[in-house]
Design brief:
The chain has 184 residues and is an alpha/beta fold. It is built from six helices and seven strands.
Length: 184
């Protein structure tokens, strides 16, 4: 369960980006934001999300929506992972998961185990592998983190919360696009 509700002011943060600079939510005040909270730099399904989102990011930016991907990894691991496939949006390091937790991207070992046993994780990994993202274990990573996506309006308020029910359950593009197109 997310500690946040629709209409709440989004918690501020400042995290390290791929280029080493700090990026904070306050830097984007006046713009709508999609925050994608992802597991770790080596997560194949998470990297598929980045790849898929990158194809839509420019259109969303033109509509006033900025995308930020937040990984529970160090900046060094993220720079290594994205050295050849740098997305057109900020990728931020949250190595201790503090910002993930503040936004409701929960750790749930029992739920992740059920997903693995159900076969949906294998299906998600197959989709990721078909796009060139192989599953690689990141040493010290939190295997049990579930993704979350948060839409934040131009005033910094939560407009939509989506905490995944499994490792590949993401916010529908139609919801993101409708939020991006919403008049200011």
């Amino acid at each position: 369960m997310s500690p946040l509700s629709i209409g709440d002011l989004a918690p501020s943060f400042s995290l390290e980006a791929l280029d080493g600079r700090r990026v904070g939510l306050g830097d984007l005040r006046g713009r709508r934001v999609l925050l994608g909270f992802l597991r770790n730099a080596q997560c194949a399904v998470c990297n598929l999300w980045v790849h898929t989102t990158a194809r839509r990011a420019e259109v969303w930016r033109e509509q006033g929506l900025e995308v930020i991907a937040v990984f529970e990894s160090t900046g060094d691991r993220l720079r290594k992972q994205f050295a050849e496939r740098r997305p057109p949006f900020a990728v931020l390091a949250d190595p201790d998961g503090t910002v993930h937790d503040a936004y409701g991207s929960c750790t749930d070992a029992a739920r992740v185990q059920r997903v693995v046993e159900s076969g949906s994780a294998a299906e998600a990994l197959a989709r990721a592998a078909a796009s060139g993202f192989d599953p690689i274990h990141e040493e010290g990573s939190n295997f049990f983190r579930l993704p979350a996506e948060i839409l934040i309006d131009e005033n910094g308020a939560i407009g939509h919360l989506h905490v995944a029910q499994d490792v590949s359950n993401h916010l529908a593009d139609e919801i993101i696009t409708a939020f991006a197109r919403r008049s200011r």
